[in-house]
Amino acid sequence: MELKEYADVVHRCFRCGYCKFTYDFSYRGFNCPLYSTRRLESCSPGGLMWLIRASLMEREIAWSDRLTDILYSCTMCRNCVQQCRFSFNHKLVGIFEAARERVIEAGSVPPKVNHFLTAIHGYGNPYKLLRQDRGSWAEGTGIRLYREGDDFLYYVGCVGSYDSTGQRAARALGEVLLKSGLAFGILGSQETCDGNEVNTLGEKGLFEVLKQQNVQTFQNMHVAKIVTLSPHSYNALLNHYPGGFEVFHYTQLLRDLIKGGQLHPSRPFPERVTYHDPCFLARYNQEYEAPREVIRSIPGIELVEMDRNRENAFCCGGGSANFYTDVLGGGRDRPSVARVHEAYSTGATVLAVSCPICLTMLEDAVKTAGLEGQLRVKDVSEIVRESL
Amino acid sequence: MTTGDFVYDSLRRIVGQDFVSNAPEDLYIYSHDLGAQPPRKVDYVAMPRTVEQVQEIVRLANEARVPITPMGGGLTLSALALPVKGGIILDMKRMDRIIEVNGSSKYAVVEAGVTQGALKSYLEKHHPELQHSTPESPPAATVVGNVLIHGHGHLTPAHGTNSRMINGLEVVLPTGEVCRIGSCAVSPYWFTRECLPDLVGLFVGWYGITGIITKASIQLFPKPKLRDLVLFSTDDPGLLSDVVFDLFQMEIAENFFAITQDKPAWMYGHTYITVTIAGQSRDEFECKKTQLLSMFNGRLDLIDPIPASLRERYLEVPPFAATQADFAKGGGFEYYGCIVPVEKVPEAWNRGLGIARKHDVVFSYGLQALDAGHSVMCGPVYSFNRADERDIEKVRHALEESSRLALDLGGLIWKAGLPGQALMMERMDRNTLALMRKVRKVLDPNGIMNPGNWGD
Fold this sequence. Notes:
heterodimer; A: alpha/beta; Rossmann fold; four-stranded parallel β-sheet; 44% helix; globular; B: alpha+beta; Uridine Diphospho-n-acetylenolpyruvylglucosamine Reductase, domain 3; nine-stranded antiparallel β-sheet; five-stranded antiparallel β-sheet; 13 helices; 20 strands; 31% helix
């Protein structure tokens, strides 16, 4: 939606600040990654609402690099949507997206965001790596290309395909799926970016292009079911693609395979594990239980919860391309560092994630926090693989 | 953000680049209040993390003769955290440590930026048997900001205003020295303000013009195992003074409100009275409830069952009072909670409603009993559309007339902004006004602390 379509809403934000906290009225710390990092009132969802109105709608203040910086520091984690108590709460992220769309049209995006978009436009990934290398991570694993008639298309996404940490999760999931006996394959060089981040950054034109490319590929190969490694891909394919295929996040599939007896995690994993909910699986799509069911099915694991979990989970800070652009910044105060400290405080030795972006963000944060050797970050797929 | 500016560069050195700004975009937010008051100029915002940083900023302000306005949550609605004469807003919210909770002597020592939400959450997790008096403001309001403006909370009807719950303070004086007030001045315990000259009053209700509070000790109270609401209605607001008097003859109520609205239509002309009852045991709870029902039997109409929305509104701590910002679908509301003698309640109620209706604004009208029924805060809450300047102007006029009424009835204006301060100073004893000026001059010789409040 365009910003003008929100004209009857934007001024209704009172800036009461409920959006900064957790959802369950327990107020367990500031849960907005932007506010918790920057702490200026201007850098909060309410501040953003007022600034968008003052600049893009009422023209009280000129649009500026500072406003752009604040706008693109938001990770679009939807904590504000979850926590705002007014009836228009569900529109908040849409308003930020519409404001970004306006900024994109004006050509005023921050340079790092511009690099991200340009790379995806040119290469189909933010890293400017070759399209033909998109499936290289699978070499030597036995994971093959998708064939018509397969049970599932394994959609890997950019981070799983190119980032070395993300590839770890991609391989782990692929190997688990191989052991399940499912017929599946990847697209390799025919896969392109799912566009989830592009969409949240407000680049609707590029998102349409990416969507059409992927959909055309899915249709050409008569894909009926897709399993995604990344919750970001899951969100884009499930909620923004035109349909014609079923979409599963991999934790949902693993849960079903374990329940159906096609996977038998039997080797004990004797660790205390805490689970970090990724925003695009949890708050965006209300999938809180599938990953936990998978974790609980593994013998030896003691699953403990962080104070902020499920709809109250604290974003790792990587959403809306911040894993790449790092417009949010924050140094030692960044959300990912706070999150690993929170995980460590539970007594957990393993922080489980189900998102390759969270995996990279939190693994880096463990080093920044000096918790190496005390807290390991593992994708759920890696834990399952170790237990098979 | 502009560099090459002595004050900005100094602030950047003191608090770090990420926590100071003179960018117009950040200042826009800090120059606009949530209530109906017009925006005011702000030159810098800085977020200190330590007492030493606050001291350095105060010394800088003295050197550069630049005003400082301390800010907590910025949620007073009467623009108390907006500078009158520009300068630095000191946003205290990075000083957010809960220093100590003493469960035996029942107090918490918190830094100035600790929010109501953070303290509530901390107590629920670590001291579930204790609670603090939580105001109706959102959880982003600060504990220290609330007590410094004579704030009220959900325990105020039973235990007094939240400012009376202050055991001690740590303050950076306008000349940069750090002082401790209360028992913490002579003892490691922040447990009382008795036995010493009571200097707390030098800092409560002054809106930051006598110093910057960096820590406060506040009293905690037993958290009851049982709480519930009893709801009455009456068509005769003339009963309200007697209701308040009678109710507080016994220690029954944890909280007490009365409310009326013209819309929706079913509320028109009716006064709804909510009494929160709490108890540690079922026996205690039922005893209080029985006494309450007996007390008002035949005088007030009991409403049972209570509509779920009302039960949630008055039992939730803190309640979602900010909902009134959306009554006019416009994101704004403001009220002057006028404190009046108990015997003046019916007149304040009837004439206050008349003013609200005359100005044709969306409103609700309510009262909360204070200090075990020794006084009453009552007044209108005016909702407005932030996108409609005429609507805001109507609210400003209504607020001014409501404030004049409070003073005409012998009352006072709570957390008065500039218009309310001016009205009270007009009527204030001249020697009292002179004393306030002397105190201020002694403490703040360069006049850097939030100048423009309570005169110059």
